[in-house]
Amino acid sequence: MGAHTRSHRYLRRIHGHDDCRRVPTVQGQSGDFQPTFDEITIVLISNSFPKDSLKDYPEIVTMGEVALHRSVSKDWKVGYGDYMSVAKRPKGSGSNGWYPHVDLVELESWRIKLDLTKDDPQGFVRSATALMAETGPWEGRAHCWGTQVIEAVRGGSLKFDGTTFTVPGPWLSVRANQHLARMARR
């Protein structure tokens, strides 16, 4: 950076106490230079989709990030952010088998239809069928690519748009697509 060196200032306010968070500043020949911004947008980013076995959760899981944002935004001007309903998993997790499940993203929750037949791709068909049988929640769905996949799988086809939906990985895109469609309409 030429004659300037980069340093950082730390400040974050949590529950009325100062804490540490990186805030970049630039140190020049004449001392600290504080950048000027017309506006700084603060975004609260969180995720509450379960990271561990869905067997241990109810069929309907509340999106904790929505409630958290609602609570924080009462006192602070913050934008909303999340991780598209995709939980970060530790490297190597999921290698001990899986349970098929199909998820419906609702306004403030996920409706998870879990099939307890381990490692069985047909469990996705059974889960999609059970999910679509709940007419109230299904009628309130986001009309998007993700729900089109669920409809196709319920019909018995485990392949859609060139992707095979026989293991959990591709189902992340189905949930994320529904989530993005929902959030875009908020």
Report the principal-axis shape. elongated
Report how far the terminal alpha carbons are from each other. 42 Å
| Quaternary structure of the protein | single chain
Strand line-up across the major sheet: 1-2-3
Encode the helix/strand succession as letters.
EEEEEHEEEHHHEEH
Counting helices, strands and paired strands, the structural category is: alpha+beta
The Rg value, from CA coordinates, equals 22 Å
Number of helices, where a helix is a run of at least 4 consecutive DSSP H or I residues: 5
Detail the poorly predicted runs. Answer: 1-23
Beta-strand content bin = 25-35%
Percentage of helical residues? 25-40%
What is the number of beta strands? 10
* Structural domain tally: 1
Pfam families: Beta_protein (PF14350)
InterPro entries: Protein_beta (IPR025683)
Description:
The protein is α+β, with helices and mostly antiparallel strands. The protein is elongated. The strands form four sheets. The chain has a three-stranded antiparallel beta sheet, with no helix packed on it. It has a three-stranded antiparallel beta sheet with strand order 5-8-7. The longest helix is centred in the last third of the chain and has 17 residues, at 168-184. Residues 1-23 have low confidence and may be disordered. It contains five helices and ten strands, in the order E-E-E-E-E-H-E-E-E-H-H-H-E-E-H. It has helices spanning 64-72, 122-133, 135-139, 145-154, 168-184, and strands at residues 5-14, 17-28, 31-33, 43-46, 60-62, 79-82, 101-105, 109-114, 159-160, 163-164. A hairpin with a 3-residue loop joins strand 7 and strand 8 (109-114). It has one domain (43-184).
